[in-house]
Design goal:
Elements (H helix, E strand, L loop, with lengths): L8 H31 L27 H29 L4 H23 L4 H27 L1
Helix pairs in contact: 1-2, 1-3, 2-3, 2-4, 3-4
């Protein structure tokens, strides 16, 4: 049996976790677009001030910072800074054949940490609350990388 098939429960765990965080990344981008349209503001580039189907009345103030839009943009950027490392190390982690229990704890733990981080960010929780969920996710990725490194180097 290949390690990278649905018949391998560790790979299935990764596939589920990866699919959830990929939907999270892509959904956050769409959330930013939704917020830009809803608020008629928060555009990112000067060329966005052209008449179009959605922006029929472009104005210079649409380029001004809008926290409603920018919060979503920051959440998206944070996902793009953190989730790709999980996606990469997850594939390496499968290759060292961890126990299913360890894989589930780490992979689903990462997903839960990222989702909690998103809720904390969206609801304007303190930096300490966000940092707690970031730290959990980051430590999981670091552990997975070190686990792979130790096994691969031995």
């Amino acid at each position: 049996m290949s390690m990278y098939t649905i018949e391998n429960p560790v790979f299935t765990t990764y596939a589920i976790a990866a699919a959830i965080v990929i939907v999270k990344i892509m959904g956050q981008g769409w959330m930013t677009v939704y917020r830009m349209i809803r608020s008629d503001s928060g555009l990112a580039s000067p060329e966005d001030l052209q008449v179009g189907l959605i922006n029929k009345n472009p104005r210079q103030e649409q380029l001004e910072l809008n926290d409603y839009v920018d919060r979503s943009r920051r959440m998206h950027r944070n996902d793009l800074e953190n989730i790709p490392a999980f996606l990469a190390v997850g594939l390496l982690f499968i290759a060292v054949e961890p126990s299913l229990f360890l894989a589930q704890i780490l992979m689903y733990g990462f997903v839960l940490a990222r989702l909690c981080h998103a809720v904390a960010y969206a609801t304007k929780q303190t930096h300490e609350v966000r940092a707690t969920f970031y730290t959990i996710g980051s430590l999981i990725v670091i552990y997975m990388a070190l686990h792979v490194l130790v096994i691969a180097a031995s």
